[in-house]
Amino acid sequence: MTAPATHDPTLLVHGGAWAIPAEAAAAHRQGVREALETGYKVLALGGSALDAVEAAVTVLEDDPTFDAGRGSFLTSDGRVQLDALLMDGGRMKAGGVACVERLRNPIQAARLVLEQSPHVYFVGAGAEQFAAAHGMILIDNAELVLPRERERLAHAQARQAAGFRDETFSGEILLDDKDPETEFKGNLDSDFPITTQQASAPDEGNSTEPNPGKHWWQKKSAQPGWDTYDTPGAPGPDFGTWDPTKDSHDTVGAVALDARGNLAAATSTGGTLNKTPGRVGDSSLIGCGCYADNLAAAVSLTGWGEPIMKLVLGKWATDRVAAGSAPEIAAREAISYLYNRLGGHGGIILLGPDGRFGLAHNTPAMAWGVATPSGLQTGLTV
User: Fold this and answer.
1) pLDDT, tens digit, 9 for 90 and up, residues 313-342
2) Range of 195-199, 200-204, 343-347 with top mean pLDDT
3) Which domains are present in the chain?
4) What is the pLDDT of residues 125-182, one digit of tens each?
């Protein structure tokens, strides 16, 4: 489903929603800027939204600043496993790969699945074999592993051995978010403000500091037991208190609208720190961490995958745009729903077929960028 070449090309990218430290701020903004420049060049030359998001995400996968491709988090056995999904909103075609260990750019393998296979999704060795059969070079997994990630894994496993509970996968509030009796029913709008932004003009001077006022991550210490781990014994030295936003969750993604009115979305990730080998999160699942439909919207999510998966949050957000909600409102509503329903954390970029877009997150920061004919913007908060 296409339209005449009368649309203003638009590209949004994200580099993950978490508590980006000050010393990493410049690298995150530079990374999303390079991805924007590469992807938008495709659109400016009349290229497709699908080509643009693939190009942008490839740049982010190659940048070790982010948790995608080289430099990703390590599994509990010390390896990198990568997931990616690409979706064409015009043809309603998608391609995804998961748990690949020998591909430098899983988003390119996802594109091969989309274009060259009657299937939608390949995992593990089968995905690698399919990619190799279509010209991708298989590498040694060690090429994707950085020393800093070995250190991070060692620290995480030391905390685990000391009895610290990891609540990454269930949402930080809920001990059992599958139980209706324990579901979170707080009021996110009043208790935990989330901000959104609709960009209008180029601005490279956006502050890297959180927005003024009281934010949920500043208020959480008032909640009983939030400052400490629930452990068998007293917390050991050097472990600090648990805050799920302080461990990097740098899933990357992009959404685009091309001049012909086609939408596309792409998401890629190295998953979560110390995950069990074979675990797949939301990023490569259709309707969860990624989705695109010319009749609705294109979306890419980042954050703690298990709550996002349970809510099929990407499809949830695009359905609201299809029903008439503005993308900037639907983005905010999606992150509110994620937290209110399951205590989840993350961020979203959402682009409608008319070029309107929304960004939102409920973490201290989210690396983002937007490119339109008016110019380019990047930031760490919205």
Assistant:
1) 999 999 999 999 999 999 999 999 999 999
2) 343-347
3) 10-147+245-379 (3.60.20.30)
4) 999 999 999 999 999 999 999 999 999 999 999 988 988 766 555 454 443 333 333 2
- Sheet (strand 290-292) strand order: 195-196, 357-361, 346-351, 298-303, 290-292
Task: Report yes or no: 260 and 2 within 8 Å, Cβ to Cβ.
Answer: yes
Amino acid (one-letter) located at 302: T
What span, in angstroms and rounded, lies between the C-alpha atoms of 128 and 99? 9
Active-site residue numbers?
251
Q: Which residue has the tokens 């609201």?
A: 320
pTM, full prediction = 0.82
HSE-up (13 A, CA, CB side) for residue 294: 17
- For the chain, where are the E strands, in sequence order? 10-18, 82-88, 93-100, 121-123, 195-196, 252-257, 263-269, 290-292, 298-303, 346-351, 357-361, 365-372, 375-379
**Phi, psi dihedral angles at 222 (to 5 degrees):** -75, -10
Q: What is the DSSP letter of 212?
A: S
- What does the angle CA 346 – CA 347 – CA 350 come to, to the nearest 5 degrees? 145
Strands, E, within 166-308: which ranges? 195-196, 252-257, 263-269, 290-292, 298-303
How long is the chain? 382
Structure tokens at 136: 């991708």
